[in-house]
Amino acid sequence: MKRLSPTRLGIAVFAVGLLLYPLVFTNPFYLDIGVTFLLAAISASAWNIVGGYAGQISVGHSMFFGLGAYAPLLFYQLLGWPPMAGIPIGIAASVVLAIIIGMPTFRLTGHYFSMATIAVAELIRIFTGTWDFVGAAIGLQGPATARGWWDLTFRGETPYYYIFLGVLAALLFITHTIERRRFGYYLRAIKARERAARSLGVPVLQIKMQALMLSAIFTSLAGSLYAIKTGFIDPESGFGILVSVQMVIIAALGGAGTLFGPVFGALILIPLQSATNTWFGGGGSGLTYILYGGIIVLIARFEPGGLFELWHRVIAKYRSRRDAA
Amino acid sequence: MDRSWMKSAAAVAACLLLFGARPAGAADAVKIGIIWPLTGNAAAAGQASKAAAEVAADIVNNAHPELGDLPLAKTAGLPNLGGAKLELVFADHQGNPSLAQQLATRLITQDKVNVLMGAYQSSCSFTATAVAERYGVPFMVGESAALNITGRGFKWVFRGTPIASDYARTYMRFFADMKQQGKKIDSIAIVNENTDYGTSVADAIAEEAKKANIPVAIRIPYSASSTDVSAQVLQLKEKRPDVVIFISYTADSILYMKTLKNLDYKPPMIIGDDTGFSDPSFIPAVADIAQGVMNRSAWAIGKPGSVTYKINEMYKAKTGRDLDDTSARNMQSFFALADAINRAGSTDPEKIRVALTETDLKPEQLMMGYQGVKFDHTGQNILASTYLIQLHGKAYDLVWPEKAATAQLQWPMAGWAK
């Protein structure tokens, strides 16, 4: 009976759309928006594991993003390695950082956890900005022109697009798998009520830690992809608070704690950002932010569960109509 | 169900189409894409520079015979392109390097600009110039300080503004001139805030001083957030240098002036490297005790009736403010770019690039106190330099070089003496 539910069909159409996008929109600017969308979707989906499913609202995820972004360019500048080689180092560093951060902060709950994560990320940002070894306030650059394909420095955007799409697909697949396993149920139990979960025998601290580590791995990977694509990283674009906030906003907008919520949020927010900036940015009146912020406020007011809920409502309505028929 | 996914597909398509359509400009206009921070932290600088670029475009596009030797002022439009006008397309990168990269791509591929200019913050210049280099579009860096924006082996990137080493060389030329006039400059001291800005400028000064054979008695790096600098001032007092150069932000430069007075140590001359000494709050805070302090500025309004004075009047009519050093440097880079496009006689990027490499503007063709505009093989303007100004009463006066000076240099400085 479950041949092709509307949700599945929607996902299939969406996936095909993403695969074909670069073939339809060959203009580099549209491609760049596509790549930016994928990157935002990856970061927000990574945040979603700990922020959405486990309900631990981290506003300091830029610490993992920044580590992931710095590692490839640092090893390129120091030793001339292809930036790609720095990715696993960034990931390893992020996992270690996740453990160091998680141990004390996971004893905090609610706002206190959020505040602690902001503080750590800000500390790292300030520290990076004064440390010469990592380029201090000026930042680090990648290869200006590729020495070979392994530098992943492409003239066009299409290769980035498919690399990013692959990473997003892998991340969503892993999240989907987790969702249906014991680990996923534990996460939702913790989100619903931590004390109740603990009394039912959920190893709360351990589960939260595992979620944070998994989240850190993919956030770090997102950072690496960003740095390799942009070819430049500085403290603000790596560890800045806006990096963290964007992940939270996108996930919340689409629907935190759902598989496709963050992807959906990015699909709305990134084109909106680019469009408002294209139309009004040149005037310099700040209208970009007003429109952008206004739309976020509207969504928060009328669809607080995220836009993905709207989709579910539409489906439910369709189903009830079909059943009635 | 068909309808629901068709609707969402239509919505996505609509979203994407929205970026497209922009009205096409006049066929013969030359499009200059300009990427600046028009919102965010550095919005003030970006907005001021935007107004300056608009004044510059007005000067090029309309006949302004009153502006003397300034290239392209006399004629309307670009004579070698049949009087083509310049059309400016502004984009706001918000201080975000990744956005600057995207906007450079947009301006090149969507708006089809002929040349690019920007991007104020060095971080944004790094990423935006890399895009221009990939697409083979000339990029004029109007004003970004980081040394290695030029010198990365890029063919398409040019920078009109002076950088730290240019300022350092100007100081040394000033010292040589002073020595000739019989002033005693046996040693200098460098006091710098210890982040990137202070360190890189101090390094450049130390290097040029070595070349000029002027001993650096002491270098004192400090943290700009210090609340007490008496230890540093005591160090200075012990060495008794003839000139102290400060590379400082605002609060710390004010603190230094106050501490110097409190500890009653007045060096013969103090030079502040722009930034803190140019901050609007510096003069009201310490004018009484810092008389004769020197500072740098490549821009001077000049005497009434002069070209710079008239440019300033145009800018003032538009914004209500005097033109500042940063915007003026951007404006000069803009003129150099317009001049190259005119000499290229074409909107072909390669021809414009070649024309840029052949740029040779003389001091009398400039609005700034440079010795000219001429780009070396890395794209850096090798003739960029700056004026030196001195605090007299409640305002800075241009005192060096002498031929441009509007006031007499005071040496040694008076400080807090009446």
Description:
- The complex is a heterodimer of chains A (325) and B (418).
- Chain A is mostly helical and 325 residues long.
- Chain A has one domain.
- Chain A contains 14 helices and two strands; from the N terminus they run αααααβααααβααααα.
- Chain A has a two-stranded antiparallel ribbon with strand order 1-2.
- Chain A is globular.
- Chain A starts with 5 loop residues before the first helix and ends with a helix.
- The mean pLDDT of chain A is 86.
- About 4% of the residues of chain B have low confidence.
- In chain B, helix 12 packs across helix 13.
- Helices cover 40% and strands 15% of the residues of chain B.
- Chain B folds into two domains: 198 residues, Response regulator (Rossmann fold); 151 residues, Rossmann fold, CATH 3.40.50.2300.
- Chain B is of the alpha/beta class and 418 residues long.
- A seven-stranded mixed beta sheet of chain B has the order 7-6-8-9-10-11-12, with helices on both faces. A five-stranded parallel beta sheet of chain B has the order 2-1-3-4-5, sandwiched between helices.
- Classes of the chains: A mainly alpha (325), B alpha/beta (418).
- The interface between A and B is large, with 45 and 50 residues.
